[in-house]
Amino acid sequence: MKKFDVVIIGGGPAGMAAALGAREQGASVALLERDDRLGGILNQCIHNGFGLHYFGEELTGPEYAKRFRDKVLADKGITVFLEAMVLSLTEDRVVRAISPTAGLMELHAGAIVLAMGCRERSAGAIALAGTRPAGIYTAGMAQRLSNVEGYLVGKEVVILGSGDIGLIMARRMTSEGAKVKLVAEIMPFSSGLKRNIVQCLNDYDIPLRYSTTVTRVTGKNRLTGVYVAPVDEKMNPILEKEEYIPCDTLLLSVGLIPENDLLTGTSVEMSRVTSGAVVDEFRQTSVPGIFSAGNVLHVHDLVDNVSEEAFVAGASAAKFAKGELALSETVSVLPSNGVRYALPQKVHQGEGKVKIYFRVDKVYRGRTVVVESGGEVVKRKKTLVMAPGEMQNVEVDKALIKGDLSIYTEE
Amino acid sequence: MEKFDVIVIGGGVVGTAVLRSLAAYKAKTLLLEKASDVATGASRANSGIVHAGYDAETGTKKAFFNVKGAAMFPSLTAELHVPYQKTGSLVAAREGGLPALQALYERGVANGVKVEVIDRKRILELEPNISPEIAYALYAPEAGVVSPYKLTIAQADHAVINGAEIRLEEKVVSLEKTADGFAVRTEKGEYLASYVINAAGAGASEVNALIGEDAPTETHAVGDYYILDSKEAGVVNTVVFPLPDEKGKGILVAPTADGNVILGPTSRKVPHEVAEENEVTREGLALVREGVGRLIPCVNLRSVIRVYAGTRTAVGSDFIIEESKKVKNYFMLLGICSPGLTSAPAIGEYVAGVAAEALGLKKKEKMRPLPARFHLTKATEEEIEDKIASDSAYGRIVCRCEKVTEGEILEAIRSPLPAHTVDAVKRRVRAGMGRCQGGFCRPRVMEILSRELNIPLSKIRLGDKGSEIAPYEVKDGYEKV
After folding, report:
1. Catalytic residue check, B158
2. How much is the ipTM here?
C-alpha cells in the first residue's frame, strides 16, 4: 500500500497539468499513465496549433507535451507510474492499478484527479450499415498508425464527421498523397474548429458536405466504397438521393466520449450532456476528494484550456488533501436558450471571479450571452459568431452571485 | 503427397467438433479451412444460443442432435474453458398466444425437453423488464448461452494438442476419388485421405459438386444483430424469444456468454454469391429494434457497441447428416443451420464414430486436456501476481475496455491453432471487443503481431487475404509494401 496526497489517473495534458498544480501546493503526487510515456494523445498530434493561448506560441502536440513532461519528470515530488492501468477506484479514494513492473498495486489518496481523457465513437456505436471489411478506422486510430507507427491506412478516403481529428487527418492523408474525396457531416454545421476547416479542407480543395451521412459501406475484405446521402431535418437519410463513392478508406470523426468507465459503481453525479462528472469551479465532483479535469470531464477543442482547467483541479485536490479547501454554499449554473451546456455546473459563493465555459447548440451570429443570478443580470457579453465546435467562456464576479446562475443567449 | 486417414473440410463449429472427436482416435487427421481462422462463417456470427430442443420437429435430425448436444454443453464447456451459462429461455407470448405455446410445449415434451408454460407472475420473476403485453411464456430451464467462436476455437485447439492438423487459407479446389481414397487439392497443396468429411457450411454444396454428389440448392438467410455494452448486462437474464414463425425463431433478446447483450436476428433471404458478405442493412436493424420493443422495451439502444450480420445456410427443412451412398467413405454435413451450434458437439461425436468404424480406427487411451487461458478479469489477485512474476507482459494492459493484457495476446498468437490476424486475436481474448471497438488497442495488437510473427506492420491483416489494415508506408511513394 502506498499513500499520496494526490493520485492522478492519466498522464496526458490534463494529468500532467494537474500534477504541476498539485505540486505548487506542496502535495505528494502519484501520476498513473497507461501508455509507456507521458503526453497522451498529444504524442500523435504532430501538427501545430497547440499552445497559442497557454504559451503564446505555436507548438506541435509532442512539443506541447514535452514542456509539461520535462517539468513533471524533473519534480521529485511526483512519482510517475508508466504502463499503469487503473482497474478500480473507491469513494474513500483507494486506487487499484496494474503495471508490468509494479504488478498489482493499491494507492491510498488524499484526493484523486480523474484525467483519463476520452475515446472516439466507433462504427459500432453509430450502427454503421454494410459489410465489415478492413478500411474503416476512427480518425485517431488512423492518426496513430501514420504518426507513431509510420503506416498509412489507405489512399482514397471518405471522412464521416467533421470533428477536429477528422479534419486534421484529411490534411495529413492528403500530404501523404492520398485523395480525400469527401468529408460528410450529418449536422448542418461542423463540430470542428473553424481554423481547421480553413487550413485542413479549404486549403486543399477537399469538399465538405453538411447534412450528409454515410448510409452503408461495401467490400468483403477491404472497403471498396461507401454510399452517402443527404439527411432530412430528423437526421434520417434521404435514400433516393443515395450516391456511391468508391474508396478504400473510411475515417470516422463522429464524436468523442469521456472515458468515465472507472466511475461505474460510484455515486459521482454525471451530466447526461457532457458525459462527464458534474463539478464545481474547483473541478470537484459530487464525491468530496474526487476531482475531474480535461477531456474526461468535457470534451475540449483546445489543449490550452485543458491545461488551465487541470492545473486548477490539481491545486484544488492538493488543498483538499491537506484539509485546506474551504467551501461555501453552491449555486447551480443553468444553461438555456442556445446554451447546450455550461461548466462548472456548480459555483461557490464568495470572492474573486469564476470563468464559466459553455457551448452553444448551433451557429449563432451577433448574439449576446447573458448571465443572470437571483433575477439580476450579472454579465453581458456581445459575440460576433458562436459555433458548437468552439468552446466559449464568460467570466463572472462571484460577489454578484445571489442565487442560481442562468446562462443564455439573446438576439 | 501427405496422406491422412481423415480430412475434414471446413473449420466451423461442426468441422472442429468432428476433428476434436476424431482426435480421440488413433488416426492422422487434417482439417482444411479456406479462411484465415476457424469460426469465420456462421460459427462467428450467430446468436450464441444453446437451444433446449423444443423447437425442432419431433423425429428430425435437428431434434435428435439438438437435445443430445444441449446435454453435452455443461461438461464440454467446462472441459474446454468456454464461456457458457445455463440461463434458461422463454418464448414470450401475448394474450391469445397460449395455443401456440401449448403446441411448442407438447413438442418439447415429445422431444424429451424440460419445458413448462408459465404465467406473467412467473415471467416477471425471471424477467422484470418484460413487455407489459406479454402474458404467457414457455420456459425451458436447460437453455443457455455460449460463445460460439470460442467454442469453435477451443475445439480446434483441443484437437491440435491431440495430434490433429489444421491448415488455414486452403480452400479445397478439387476432390477426386482414387483407388483407395481421395485426392484433395487446395489452393496450396495436395493431400490424400482415406475418408473425407464435408463440413463446409455455406460452401458444402459446392464441395459436394466437386466429388459428384448431389449439390442441393441452399437458401441463405442473413440476420442482423446488435451487441450492447456490458454495462447493459442485467436488462435481460434469460434468452427471450417471441413466438416462432415460418422464418424461424424470431428476434431475441439475450445476455451473451461474455457479458454483453445481444439483439437479433432478422432473416433476409440473399443469393448464394453474397451469402458470405454478411451485410448489415438499415432495414434489418429497424426490424430488430421493433422486435426487441415487443419483448423488452426498455433496452437501451444508445449502448450499442457493434452491429453485424450472420448467414444461416439451410438445405430443405432438416440437417443433412449422412454418409454418401454414391461415394464410399465420404460424409456429408449440409444445411447445419440453427440449432447447429447446439447440435455440433453431438454431431461431431456421431460423425467421428462413423468414420472410425469405416476405417477401423481405435480409440486412444486418453486425450490431453486443453489448458485454460489466463484471463486477468477472471483471475484472483494471487494468480495475477504469479503471472506477472513469470512474465511482466501479464501486467501490461493492451485492451483497456476488456482489460486484456499483452500476455494474453501472446498466448493467443502462440496457441495450438495460432492467431495471426487482428480478428483472430480478438475472438480468442476479446481485445477490441469492448466499447471502444479497438480504437485504442488495434494498433497495439498490430505491433505485437508484427513483432511475434516477424512481419512488417503493413502486412498485418484484420482477417482474410486483402484485409491489410495499414498497407502503405508513410512517404514511400505509395507503392504497396
Report:
1. no
2. 0.95
Residues pairing with B197 in the sheet: B8, B331
According to the model, what pLDDT value does residue B476 have? Answer: 55
Give B446's contacts in chain A (Cβ within 8 Å): 145, 149
Neighbours of A367 (CB within 10 A): 19
**Measured distance CA(B278)–CA(B205) in Å, rounded:** 19
Lowest model confidence (mean pLDDT) among A399-408, B33-42, B471-480: B471-480
E strand residue ranges, B159-314: 165-167, 172-178, 181-186, 190-198, 219-228, 239-242, 252-255, 261-264, 268-270, 304-314
CATH number listed for the domain at residues A1-119+257-326: 3.50.50.60
Q: Are residues B212 and B344 in the same domain?
A: yes
The pLDDT of residue A327 is 82
Q: How far is B463 from chain A (nearest CA, A)?
A: 7
Q: Are residues B126 and B242 in the same domain?
A: yes
Q: What top-level class would CATH report for the domain A328-411?
A: mainly beta
| d(C-alpha B451, C-alpha A14), whole Å | 32
Is the residue at B474 inside a domain?
A: no
Q: How many CB pairs under 8 A join A and B?
A: 157
B467 part of a folded domain: no
pTM confidence score: 0.96
Q: Residue B442 maps to which CATH number?
A: 1.10.10.1100
Neighbours of B216 (CB within 10 A): 14
Grid cell listed for A131: 459489410
Tell me the average pLDDT of chain B.
Answer: 96
Is the pLDDT at B353 greater than 80, yes or no? yes
- pLDDT value at position B247? 75
Q: Are strands B116-119 and B134-140 parallel, antiparallel or unpaired?
A: antiparallel
**What is the separation of C-alpha B125 from the centre of its chain, rounded to a whole number of angstroms?**
31
A122/B contact by beta carbon, under 8 A: yes
Q: Whose CA is closest to B364, among B69, B21, B73?
A: B21
**Nearest-angstrom CA–CA distance, B472 and A334:** 50
Mean pLDDT of B9-17: 98
Query: B-chain residues within 8 Å CB-CB of A1?
Result: none
Q: How far is A393 from chain B (nearest CA, A)?
A: 30
Q: Is A241 helix (H, G, I), strand (E, B) or coil?
A: helix
- Residue B480, pLDDT > 70, answer no
**Among A301, A253, A257, A276, which Cα is nearest to A118's?**
A257
Partners of A140 on chain B (C-beta within 8 Å) are 439
Question: For residue B413, which of B442, B450, B467, B468 has the smallest C-alpha distance?
Answer: B450
Q: What mean pLDDT do residues A38-65 have?
A: 96
* Closest residue, chain B, to A239 (C-alpha): B282
**Which chain B residues touch A98 with a CB distance below 8 Å?**
376, 384, 388, 395, 397
A34, A101, A145 member nearest B392 (Cβ): A101
Q: With an 8 Å Cβ cutoff, are B457 and A141 in contact?
A: no
Cβ separation of A83 and B389 shorter than 8 Å? no
Q: Are B288 and B263 in contact (CB under 8 A)?
A: yes
pLDDT-derived band at A44 (thresholds 50, 70, 90) equals very high
Residues A337, A332: Cα–Cα separation, whole Å: 16
What pLDDT, in 10s, does the model give residues B125-154? 999 999 999 999 999 999 999 999 999 999
The domain total for chain B is 3
Compute the average pLDDT of residues B115-119. 98
B259 within 8 A of B230, measured Cβ to Cβ? yes
Per the document, the length of chain A is 411
Which stretches of B247-339 are DSSP H helices? 282-295
For residue A15, give Cα distances in angstroms to A20, A25, A65, B145, B455.
9, 16, 11, 42, 36
Cell numbers at B95, concatenated: 394474450
Does B479 score more than 80 pLDDT?
A: no
